[in-house]
Every structure is written in structure tokens, then in C-alpha cells.
């Protein structure tokens, strides 16, 4: 089996020196060497390293470098691709890879670690092994492998939500987990979605997006002061609402109504997520609906943001057409 490994950094590429974890050029390859020495020496890995950074340091420049590699990568000689990544922004890059490669014919699996591979507590080898095991099933699509040692979840890449800051565990939207890999044994949890993946999706980004324009992502919270935000500097705004699809509608600076009006005045599109497909709605949501906004239904914060970032940094299709389409099962 031939697997291409794209090494981008993160904890899975780190060494710890004087209690400081930092990616090292040579240590990025250690997870491959560990797998070959401890699990299976017969896998033919080809490793490339476009950059080697902590994922919290991702910028537009980083995404453009990654997109360059993805659009120029020859998949014809690989049975699968593993992208090693930092855990902090894993859910964002997972969504990006899935949306620019929705018709991929081989398994592409992003993975990360909670500790460097040489730490006995690390799940690095377990997650990497699960990625290899899942690739062996030849299930085409974009996935993310992450979990506890010996028990790894395989997520659909566009339905992964970032790790909780308290317990460091990842979650996902409904039906986000495709399979589980436990001690190299795979159990499938969502066969209908796997079958749907095999049928492929429309390839929206036939040309590589180039990230130049910014998207303003705002997560609602109590007593939020919207006067702090400058929508005129953004190509679009993604306002991620409370779970009931609500936001504050009272007060001068705390009302989302006034903020949206300012966005409308500067012709800055406002996308509201995540909306629900329900006939009954709260009075606050009803007030918001009277304004010029675009709802995004049943979508994670990460997929909503990345979708907007890609849509407003390409020139082939109207951005709103992309935002209203289901690129890679991100809309449930």
C-alpha cells in the first residue's frame, strides 16, 4: 500500500525541550518512523513537508501554501493521503481540504496528536495508525482521525467541531462520525453516508482559490458589543448564533439588529449560522429575519467560515451561489 503523507507541523511534529513543545523539521517524520518500527514496516510512505508550524499560527499565507500543494499533488500513484496537522485548528483545515477536493477518488485523512509522539501519553501513533487502517478500506473521501489511544473516531471532515478547551475532546455535528477504529478493527457507524460519499459531489473550485480577502467570524455571547467590529474591512461576515439560532436584539451596541444594518449599509454580506429547519422560531430570530441576511442551515462554525473564505476568494462563481450549495455534506 502506498500512502502520501503531507507533514504540516503541529504537536504530532513536536519535540519538547525545557518543557516547551515546538515543531522540528526532523521530528515531523518521527511518526512515520514510529509506525514502521512498531506497527507495519511494509507500508510505502512518501512524505512531503510544505511547512512545519503550530496550527494556531495558520494565516492566509499558510492556507495558500497548502492549497498550492493540494492542487498540484498527483494522486494517481497513491492509495491514500494522510495530512498531519496541529489539533487547535484541525477542524478548520479539515473543512478546507474537503471543500476543495470533494470528488477525490482515494481516502484523504487528516490527523493530529495531543502530545508529541515520543510522549508515552500521546495518541499520535494511535491516530496515525487508525488513518492508515482506514485508508486500507479504500473508502474515498475526506476524513479526520482523532480519539483516545486505541479508540479513534473517523469524522467526516466538514462535520468536525474544534476540541473543547477543558477536556480537549473533539465533537461534531449530527452523524459526524463515519467509523471507529479500535485496536486496528474498524466498525462503521454511518453506512448510508459512506454510500453517498461514493457517488461524489459537484466540484465547485475547479481553479485554486487564492486567499486575499478576509472573512469576519463572530460567535455570539452575552452582552456582546457589536460596535467593536468593523464589517467594512471584511468581504463577508459569518455570524455564528446561539444553538437556538438566536442573538441579542436589544440595546444600542448589544443589538445584532443594529450591527447587521451597518453591514447592509456597507454592502457587506451577513451569513447567519447555524439555522434550523423548523417552522416555529423565537421572536429574536424573527426580528433578524426581517433584515438582509443569508441563513446557513445545520452547519458547523468551521465549515461556515471556511466556506465563506473560499467563496469570496475565487472568481468563477458568485459567492452566494457557493454559500447556498452543499459542497461536501457540510449541510445536514
Properties at a glance:
single chain; 332 residues; alpha/beta; Rossmann fold; eight-stranded mixed sheet; 9 helices; 16 strands; globular
Overview of the molecule:
By secondary structure, this protein is an alpha/beta fold. The protein has two domains: 2-198, L-asparaginase, N-terminal domain (Rossmann fold, 3-Layer(aba) Sandwich); 215-323, Rossmann fold (3-Layer(aba) Sandwich), CATH 3.40.50.40. 26% of the residues lie in helices and 23% in strands. It has nine helices and 16 strands. The chain has helices at residues 30-38, 60-72, 90-100, 124-135, 191-198, 256-265, 283-289, 301-311, 319-323, and strands at residues 2-7, 14-17, 20-23, 44-48, 80-84, 107-111, 141-148, 151-156, 160-161, 171-172, 177-182, 185-188, 215-219, 236-240, 270-275, 294-297. The protein has an eight-stranded mixed sheet with strand order 4-1-5-6-7-8-11-12, sandwiched between helices. A four-stranded parallel sheet has the order 13-14-15-16, with helices on both faces. A two-stranded antiparallel ribbon has the order 2-3. Strand 15 (270-275), helix 7 and strand 16 form a beta-alpha-beta unit. Helix 1 (30-38) crosses helix 4 and helix 3 (90-100) packs across helix 8 (301-311).
